[in-house]
Task: inverse folding
């Protein structure tokens, strides 16, 4: 151990040099400052202090693959009774010498992961908050074991311990299985229904239910039955909760609020006009007591100015019903608000992400005449980024169908971001909405693209016409394979450019949201318009023609390699048929497989994009998705073709260079003749498209420069093919010369006028004479 001691009040500069995987550990000793070579969790001494002046120098330099750290501390001794600084791990927060740990960590320094060992309740008595006596859970208990113990539990003390243990065992709902959720729901249901349950037991049970709403399990029939039974018990509890609470809460109203669940109970006068239960919006996303409001006598829906409601339900009573009663009476009104529809699993409405709040209303009076006139609800949907509301339905949970139903419910047009609903009965209500993605449709092509593609079209058309004319007198069987391959490249590239210019923009954007009030349950939370336009056909054609272009470039390059490396003057007789089958067949197969695997009429966006007519490549968060057809249906085949083309280019270049050892000589023309074929192959093989792959991995200024280069090279590829494979040929030059000569030799008869100026020396008179020919 290396140790340096100093007296109280003295200061010393201490320099430590080491190369190790461990760190030095600082600790207080009696009037000293000590260092030990140790590897504890608190391995950096200076992290123990809030005052950075204790660290006067810190250097780090790499030597022979190891990090040599040089730390220099300015240390000052302090009395031995000084408080040791509290160090908390895993996000813990030191407070008064104690670590306040996150939910997932326990222990003195928040270093132990696991469930809590005890629970306690914070209650307010006489205006001050205090914790009740903690209830310690016996280690080793499981939800299954608690279910067996429950059969023999009758006393209030046993119920209290059982409720506390259940709450602790469900504190990590994301780790629970379907069997755990089922057992917890059955235990909680028994606790809520027990006549011996105290207020503490009910609050712990409601807290357990709130935690179960965060569970993430697969659909299970036994679990669904247990959780649905739990919702029935909660509805019954909402009617009786105000009668069972002790004197610390008002006998007319009672409320239990948990992050994912609210149970509200009230005893109201029978002559009330209506009762409104409101959950106001907050920043936490959880239910908070001061944002839960109950108005026991209102004539219409009211929301306080400056507040926004997440969920609201208004129960309206008929005035005639109130006047018909002979004597004053009270009505029990109960509400239960769920943060999500975890307990209401629908078979006809498929949901994956958007949380849907469910609210229930229950009414019970001393007579059977207590029937609400109507129930009005408002829900504020939670939209994900980049989405907007498309449609919604007002529904209630039908326990006989075990699914949502619209019977007796109507909807009104959504306004101010809220979904309005009306129903003629009380039960569990919800608004099932469907959203759709917001798309930014592609703008018109920029000037560079339009000009480049226009020149490419002109160059490709001239190239096709010239080569067909040159070989028109020959039999098709006598055409050179290189000419056929070049024409196929030009045809497919020309078809791609024309299709791209005429149809890449989506001419049939998504439809507007329905404006009627038809109350129909959406099949899914995400709405996708069925395919009704040519956009999918355009995407398929672009996919096919672009792959065909590159497939033919590979065949052309293969022909060049076979001819150059083998010094042959012709290819095998079957080469034409084979190249036709590969050049057009392989792209057709890839396009057909991609289309068949991903395209659906009712959901075309699995195959193409909505913003423009091209293969789908990103997910809903606009992040590149390797499972989309753009990756495996285009980028992978194209990448393989480009790699093959690069190999062909290298082989041809090596062969041409090896034939002339004097390639680097002083003669400029031979050098030009050797380089030009390679440049021509680079253009024809489409190797500039490799820049498109680099764009996937670059950002900032580099990305911008590569984008401009890629745009110029790719859009002018047709023009480059014309210049290198047509304009330079002697036959094309001769044809152009003949055309120029024929134009210049045309005799055009014109009227001419001549003016002559003569001078008379005798009279010194000037005159003009004109003649016409």
Result:
């Amino acid at each position: 151990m290396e140790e340096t001691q100093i007296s109280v009040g003295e200061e010393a500069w201490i320099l430590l040099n080491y190369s190790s995987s461990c760190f030095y550990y600082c600790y207080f000793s009696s009037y000293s400052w000590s260092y030990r070579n140790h590897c504890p969790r608190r391995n950096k001494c200076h992290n123990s202090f809030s005052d950075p002046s204790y660290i006067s120098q810190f250097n780090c330099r790499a030597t022979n693959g190891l990090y040599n750290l040089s730390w220099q501390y300015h240390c000052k001794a302090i009395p031995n009774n000084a408080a040791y600084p509290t160090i908390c791990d895993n996000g813990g927060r030191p407070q008064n010498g104690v670590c306040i740990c996150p939910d997932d960590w326990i222990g003195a320094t928040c270093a132990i992961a696991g469930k809590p060992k005890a629970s306690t309740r914070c209650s307010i008595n006489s205006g001050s908050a205090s914790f009740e006596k903690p209830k310690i859970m016996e280690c080793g208990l499981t939800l299954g074991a608690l279910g067996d113990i429950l059969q023999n539990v009758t006393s209030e003390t046993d119920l209290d311990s059982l409720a506390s243990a259940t709450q602790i065992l469900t504190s990590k709902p994301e780790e629970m299985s379907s069997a755990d959720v089922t057992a917890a729901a059955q235990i909680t249901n028994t606790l809520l229904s027990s006549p011996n349950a105290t207020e503490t037991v009910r609050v712990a049970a409601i807290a357990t239910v709130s935690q179960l709403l965060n569970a993430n399990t697969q659909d299970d029939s036994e679990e669904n039955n247990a959780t649905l039974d739990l919702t029935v018990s909660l509805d019954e509890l909402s009617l009786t909760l105000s009668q069972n609470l002790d004197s610390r809460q008002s006998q007319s109203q009672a409320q239990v609020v948990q992050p994912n669940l609210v149970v509200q109970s009230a005893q109201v006068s029978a002559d009330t006009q209506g009762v409104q239960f409101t959950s106001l919006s907050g920043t936490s996303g959880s239910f908070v007591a001061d944002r839960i409001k109950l108005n026991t006598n209102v004539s219409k829906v009211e929301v306080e100015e400056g507040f926004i409601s997440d969920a609201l339900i208004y129960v309206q009573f008929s005035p005639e019903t109130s006047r018909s009663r002979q004597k004053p009476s009270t009505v029990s009104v109960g509400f239960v608000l769920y943060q999500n529809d975890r307990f209401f699993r629908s078979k006809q409405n498929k949901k994956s992400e958007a949380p849907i709040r469910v609210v229930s209303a229950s009414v019970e009076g001393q007579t059977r005449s207590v029937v609400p006139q109507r129930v009005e609800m408002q829900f504020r949907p939670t939209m994900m980024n980049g989405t907007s509301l498309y449609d919604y339905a007002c529904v209630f949970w039908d326990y006989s169908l075990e699914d949502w139903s619209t019977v007796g419910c109507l909807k009104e047009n959504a306004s101010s971001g809220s979904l309005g609903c009306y129903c003629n009965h009380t039960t569990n209500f919800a608004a099932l909405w469907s959203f759709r993605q917001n798309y930014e449709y592609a703008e018109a092509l920029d000037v560079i693209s339009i000009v480049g593609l226009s020149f490419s079209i002109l160059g490709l058309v001239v190239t096709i016409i010239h080569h067909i004319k040159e070989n028109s007198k020959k039999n098709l069987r006598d055409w050179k394979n290189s000419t056929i391959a070049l024409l196929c490249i030009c045809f497919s590239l020309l078809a791609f450019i024309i299709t791209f210019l005429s149809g890449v923009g989506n001419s049939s954007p998504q439809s507007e949201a329905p404006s009627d009030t038809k109350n129909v349950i959406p099949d899914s939370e995400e709405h996708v318009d069925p395919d009704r336009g040519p956009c999918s056909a355009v995407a398929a054609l672009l996919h096919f023609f672009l792959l065909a272009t590159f497939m033919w470039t590979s065949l052309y390059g293969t022909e060049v390699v076979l001819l150059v490396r083998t010094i042959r003057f012709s290819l095998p007789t079957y080469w034409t048929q084979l190249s036709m089958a590969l050049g057009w067949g392989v792209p057709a197969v890839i396009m057909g497989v991609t289309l068949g695997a991903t395209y659906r009429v009712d959901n075309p966006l699995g195959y193409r994009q909505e913003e423009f007519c091209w293969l789908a490549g990103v997910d809903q968060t606009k992040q590149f998705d390797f499972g989309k057809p753009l990756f495996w249906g285009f980028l992978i085949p194209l990448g393989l073709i480009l790699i093959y083309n690069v190999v062909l280019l290298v082989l041809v270049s090596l062969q041409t260079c090896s034939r002339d050892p004097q390639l680097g000589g002083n003669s400029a023309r031979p050098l030009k003749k050797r380089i030009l074929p390679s440049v021509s192959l680079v253009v024809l093989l489409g190797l500039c498209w490799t820049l498109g792959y680099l764009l996937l991995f670059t950002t900032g200024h580099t990305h911008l420069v590569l984008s401009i280069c890629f745009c110029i090279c790719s859009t002018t590829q047709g023009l480059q093919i014309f210049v290198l494979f047509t304009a330079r040929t002697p036959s094309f030059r001769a044809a152009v010369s003949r055309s120029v000569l024929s134009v210049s030799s045309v005799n055009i008869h014109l009227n001419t006028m001549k003016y002559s100026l003569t001078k008379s020396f005798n009279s010194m008179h000037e005159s003009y004479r004109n003649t016409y020919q």
